[in-house]
Amino acid sequence: MKLCYGRILPLLAVMASRRVGMPLIPCQLFSHSLVGIKYYTKAEEGVGESWYRHSDAFPIYSTGQGSCALHVVWTLIRAVLINALCVLYKGMTFEMPDGKKDQDSETN
User: In this structure, is the dihedral angle defined by the CA atoms of residues 92, 97, 99 and 105, taken in order, positive or negative?
Assistant: First the structure.
């Protein structure tokens, strides 16, 4: 399974972090630093001299390649999604072929 932690939108990461009580200043530092980062290409020959960065014309939607925080951020986002599903869907009931409902299988 290939994970794409680098595709997490920074704004979504900040919102999920604020939801669990992360102070505003570290969230702002995180999001502002991503906007100013210069990205260099690296190949077998070494690091290139040209660079690119986030702009309106070429937005970069990532929270930083190799960031140690991405696993935690994804867990926070996943918790929001699971909570939303719990609000929208009240669980399930399994029904036997004879029409009887299996009450033990009902989830809340």
Answer: negative
Whether the model clears a pTM of 0.90, i.e. scores above it, the answer is: no
Q: Which residues pair with 75 in a beta bridge?
A: none
* pLDDT tens by residue, 48-105: 888 888 888 888 777 766 677 778 888 888 888 888 888 888 776 677 788 776 654 4
The CB-side HSE value for 14 (13 A sphere, CA atoms) comes to 15
Helix (H) or strand (E) holding 42: strand 39-43
Find, among 70, 61, 54, 59, the residue nearest to 17 by Cα: 70
Q: Are 64 and 12 in contact (CB under 8 A)?
A: no
Enter the tokens of residue 89: 């869907």
